[in-house]
Design a protein that fits this description.
The complex is a heterodimer. Chain A contains 4 helices and 7 strands; from the N terminus they run αββαββββαβα. Chain A is α+β, with helices and mostly antiparallel strands. Chain A has one domain. Chain A has a 4-stranded antiparallel β-sheet with strand order 2-1-3-4. Chain A has a 3-stranded antiparallel β-sheet with strand order 6-5-7. In chain A, strand 1 and strand 2 form a beta hairpin. Chain B is mostly beta strands. Chain B has a domain of about 180 residues: Single-stranded right-handed beta-helix, Pectin lyase-like (Pectate Lyase C-like, 3 Solenoid). Helices cover about 10% and strands about 40% of the residues of chain B. Chain B contains 4 helices and 38 strands. Chain B has a 25-stranded parallel β-sheet that branches. In chain B, strands 3-6-9-12-15-17-20-23-26-29-32-35-38 form a 13-stranded parallel β-sheet, with no helix packed on it. In chain B, helix 2 links the parallel strand 1 and strand 2. Chain B starts with a helix and ends in a 22-residue tail after the last helix. The chains are: A alpha+beta, B mainly beta.
Chain lengths: ~150, ~425
C-alpha cells in the first residue's frame, strides 16, 4: 500500500515536471501568423519563436519581429524560457537564437526590411559576408542595435 | 512657306537617316543560333526577332539597350537550372515570350525575368510558367510591366516566390497582368510613386498584393480573388486604393484587406464580397473609407482601438454577419451617412436619414473579439437578448461609436 503511494507520488511528480517544461512548437508555414506584425509566416529561412516560462508560444516571420517583440513586451529576457530561430544554412530547422549568427547586409533583404539574416554555422555566415558585405552580430548585439 | 518646310524636313531626314540605318534587325531561329549569341553580336538599339520554337537557355544577360521580340511566342526553358532573363541595361524592351522552369534556391531569388539597377524598360505580353519569382525588379525606375501572365506552381508549398516583385523602385507602371500560384501576387518593398492598374491576382498563397514600407502608390481597378489575404498594406503612407474587388478570401487569419501601420490613404469605390473579414485595421490613421460595398462577409470591418481619425462614410453594408467589431471600448473614428441593412429605425420626417443613430458594434461581436470560441453561440436566443439589452443601454460597447446619419436606402454606385 505504502509502495503504491510512493510510486503514484513519483509518477505524479514526473507528470507535473514534464508538463511544466516549456517547449517550442513547429511553425505551420503558410498558415501561422506572426504575433508581432500579423503577416503570414512563409519563409523558412527567417521564422522565429519565443516560448515564455509559462509555456506560451509566440511565432514570428522574421528576426526583426522577434527582436521588437522581446524588447517591447518583455522587460527582461528572464520571463522567456526559449528563443528559437531558423537559419539560412538549415531552413525550416530551429536552433537556439542565442547561438545563431546574424549577418546584416544591405545586399540580403529580409522580410521586415532590416536585412537581418540568421545563420547557424559561423563559417557559412562569414562566407556570405565575404560575398555580400555587411556585419555579423550575436543575439545580444543584435538586440542592443535593433530594438526600437 | 511650303518650300521652307520641305527644306527643314529634308535636312532632318538626312541628319537622322544614319541612325535608322544602324539600328539593325537580327533574326534568331531555333537550332541555328542562340538568343545569347544574338545579344552578343547585336549593336545597341538593335532589334532581335526570335522565331517560335523552344530554346533551352538560362542566365541570358541583356547588357545593352535592345528590343527583343518573340514572334508567335517562342519558349525559353531554363530546365530548373537557374534564372532565365537578366536585364542589366537601360532601355530594354522584352515582349512576346513564354518563359518557363526557373530553378529554386534558398539563398538567391531566382526569377523568370530580372531587372537589376536599370531604367526605362518595358516588359510586355510574356507568359511565365513555374518561374519561382516571376518578374523581379531591383532598384529600377521608370519602367512598364504590362499584360503578362504568370502561373506559379505553388499550391501548398511555402518556399515559393512572388509574381511581380519590386524592391527599391520608383515610377513603375504595372498594368493588366494576371498572376496566380505565387507567394504574393505583387510585392512592393520600398517602392515610391508607382501605379498598379487593372491586374488580376488570384489563388496566391499569402497575399494578392503586399505593400511594405512603400509610399505614394496607387492601386486602381484590380481584382483580388481567393488569395490567403487579398491585399496587405503595411508600414506605408499615402496609398490610394480605388475601384478594386476583394472576393473570396476565406480563412481564420485571412482578410480581404489588411491594414497595419498605414497613414493618410484613401479607400473608395471598392467591392468587398465573401471574405471572412473584409477589412482588418490595426494602427491605421487618417484613412478615408468611402463609397465601398461590403457584401456577404463574416465581418465587414474589424477596427482595432489603435486606429484614429479615420472617416467611414457613404458605404453600403449588406448581408454581413457582423458589421463592425473592435477590441476597444473607446472610439476615435467618425462614422456617418452609411447604409446598414441591419438598421431597424424609422424615418418619420422622410429626409432619407434614420431618426435614431445606428450602433454597428453588437455586444456579441465584442464578446467574440475577447473569446473567439463563443462564436458557437451565434444565433442563439440568449445572444439576441443581450444584444438588445446592450442596444438599449450600452455598457461594454463603445458609446460614441455610432452612425448618427444612417441612410434609409442603399447607396447606388455605377
Amino acid at each position: 500500500m505504502k509502495k503504491t503511494g510512493i510510486v503514484s507520488l513519483f509518477f505524479g511528480l514526473v507528470l507535473i515536471v514534464s508538463s511544466c517544461k516549456p517547449e517550442g512548437k513547429p511553425i505551420d508555414y503558410g498558415h501561422d501568423k506572426c504575433d508581432y506584425c500579423m503577416m503570414t509566416i512563409v519563409d523558412q529561412r527567417f521564422g522565429c519563436e519565443v516560448v515564455t516560462k509559462k509555456g506560451k508560444v509566440y511565432k514570428f516571420d522574421a528576426v526583426e519581429c522577434m527582436v521588437n517583440y522581446v524588447s517591447e513586451k518583455v522587460e527582461d529576457e528572464n520571463g522567456l524560457a526559449l528563443l528559437f530561430t531558423n537559419t539560412h544554412d538549415h531552413p525550416g530547422k530551429f536552433i537556439d537564437a542565442h547561438s545563431a549568427q546574424y549577418l546584416v547586409s544591405k545586399n540580403m533583404p529580409s522580410p521586415m526590411g532590416m536585412y537581418i539574416n540568421p545563420f547557424g554555422d559561423a563559417a557559412e555566415a562569414q562566407k556570405m559576408q565575404q560575398q555580400n558585405g555587411g556585419e555579423i552580430f550575436s543575439w545580444d548585439e543584435l538586440r542592443a542595435k535593433f530594438a526600437n | 512657306m511650303g518650300i521652307k518646310y520641305i527644306k527643314t524636313t529634308l535636312i532632318l531626314f538626312f541628319v537622322y537617316m544614319p541612325f535608322w540605318l544602324t539600328a539593325g534587325l537580327l533574326k534568331v531561329n531555333p537550332g541555328e543560333f542562340s538568343i545569347r549569341e544574338a545579344i552578343k553580336i547585336a549593336q545597341p538599339h538593335d532589334t532581335i526577332q526570335v522565331a517560335s520554337g523552344t530554346y533551352l537557355e538560362h542566365d541570358i544577360i541583356v547588357d545593352k539597350p535592345l528590343v527583343i521580340i518573340g514572334i508567335d511566342r517562342p519558349v525559353i526553358d531554363g530546365e530548373h537550372k537557374a534564372e532565365i532573363i537578366i536585364i542589366a541595361s537601360d532601355s530594354v524592351t522584352f515582349s512576346g515570350f513564354q518563359i518557363q522552369n526557373v530553378g529554386f534556391s534558398f539563398t538567391k531569388d531566382w526569377a523568370g525575368i530580372k531587372l537589376d539597377r536599370v531604367d526605362y524598360c518595358t516588359i510586355e505580353n510574356n507568359r511565365l510558367i513555374d518561374t519561382y519569382f516571376g518578374i523581379y525588379l531591383k532598384k529600377v525606375k521608370h519602367t512598364i510591366v504590362k499584360n503578362n501572365i504568370m502561373e506559379g506552381i505553388a499550391k501548398n508549398e511555402v518556399n515559393s516566390g512572388n509574381g511581380i516583385h519590386l524592391w527599391y523602385c520608383e515610377d513603375i507602371l504595372i498594368e493588366g497582368n494576371k498572376i496566380s500560384g505565387h507567394r504574393d501576387g505583387i510585392y512592393f518593398e520600398f517602392v515610391e510613386e508607382s501605379k498598379i492598374l487593372n491586374n488580376v491576382s488570384e489563388g496566391n498563397i499569402r497575399y494578392g498584393l503586399h505593400f511594405m514600407f512603400s509610399n505614394h502608390d496607387d492601386y486602381i481597378g484590380n481584382t483580388f480573388k481567393n488569395n490567403g489575404t487579398g491585399v496587405a498594406v503595411m508600414f506605408s503612407n499615402f496609398i490610394i486604393m480605388k475601384d478594386n474587388k476583394f472576393i473570396d478570401n476565406w480563412g481564420t487569419s485571412n482578410y480581404g484587406l489588411l491594414l497595419k501601420e498605414i497613414y493618410d490613404g484613401e479607400l473608395s469605390g471598392n467591392v468587398f464580397k465573401s471574405n471572412t473579414t473584409a477589412i482588418f485595421a490595426d494602427g491605421t490613421n487618417r484613412i478615408r473609407i468611402t463609397h465601398n460595398n461590403f457584401i456577404s462577409n463574416g465581418w465587414a470591418m474589424n477596427i482595432f482601438g489603435s486606429c484614429m481619425d479615420n472617416e467611414i462614410a457613404f458605404n453600403n453594408f449588406i448581408s454581413n454577419t457582423f458589421d463592425l467589431t473592435t477590441n476597444s471600448s473607446r472610439n476615435h473614428n467618425s462614422y456617418h451617412d452609411n447604409y446598414w441593412d441591419n438598421y431597424t429605425g424609422y424615418d418619420l420626417d422622410r429626409d432619407g436619414i434614420g431618426d435614431v443613430p445606428y450602433r454597428p458594434v453588437r455586444l456579441f461581436s465584442f464578446v467574440i473579439s475577447k473569446v473567439p470560441e463563443s462564436i458557437i453561440l451565434l444565433r442563439s436566443f440568449f445572444i439576441d437578448m443581450i444584444n438588445i439589452a446592450e442596444k438599449v443601454a450600452p455598457v461594454l460597447t463603445p458609446q460614441s461609436l455610432l452612425d448618427d446619419r444612417p441612410k434609409m436606402k442603399m447607396l447606388r454606385y455605377d
